[in-house]
Specification:
6 helices, 10 strands, 287 residues, alpha+beta, 4-stranded antiparallel beta sheet, globular, disordered C terminus, 22% helix
Length: 287
Amino acid sequence: MPEGDTVYLAGKRLHTALAGQRLVRGELRHPRLVQHDLAGSTVGAVVPVGKHLFTRFDDGRSLHSHFRMDGAWHLYRPGMRWRRPAHEARAVLETADRVAVGFALHDLELLPTADEHTLVGHLGPDLLDPAWGEEHAAEALRRMSARADHQLGLVLLEQRVMAGLGNLYRNDICFLLGLTPWVPVREAGDLPRVIALSHRLLSSNKDRPEQTTTGSLAAGEAHWVFERAGRPCRRCGARIRTADQGEPPYARVTYWCPRCQQGPAPRPVRRNTGPRRGAPGRPPAGR
């Protein structure tokens, strides 16, 4: 599932392309929405909230989308060939000079803009909220502290605590903290530091397609432990280990250094967990 900064960047690109523009084509191909035609509507804004996107229209409605594992928004010029099959398209929003196509958007809703909170009101503070400040950090701290007995790696993924983190960041955040993802939150020490680090890493990557936690964008050097199973730790040289964390079907592949990270850990498993095709980087959403 994409990280919050991927969704933020997709929203930024869609907003730049569509905001203030009238739709000459507004097809919704999701089975629940095929009866709706958005042609003639004007896009007011495209707003990311955690891992959710809202495309707001001048008629008081919003189109909500969530990428899940394989969804994406692509931008094209009229007449350009799409990079994914047409049967995967769930939304086509076309203006005079741009075409936004939402592929594999399993979660697609059309609702009054005033009701957006019904879909995202349960989320914790959005780490990429432009207004992020002390109140947001304090609320994240309150929610994280309430999960004192939960494993840190799972809490970092919980969108009800902080919205925006995914598997990439939670693995490398734990490495930078020197803790295994299985450490209970109550033993994680400086929780404000955990929150500040989460905010800093997402913010540092939000305006570009490449993602790095190490500070390097060179191929193969962007991450500390994520997708580096069996390779030497960048700090100590020990082999990076991997195992699943969480209960099926929501277990996530987890990476850690057995020397640099202190705390409990399960027996590692062997699997092919090398870098994803095209890494470092992210899906072409919002181009």
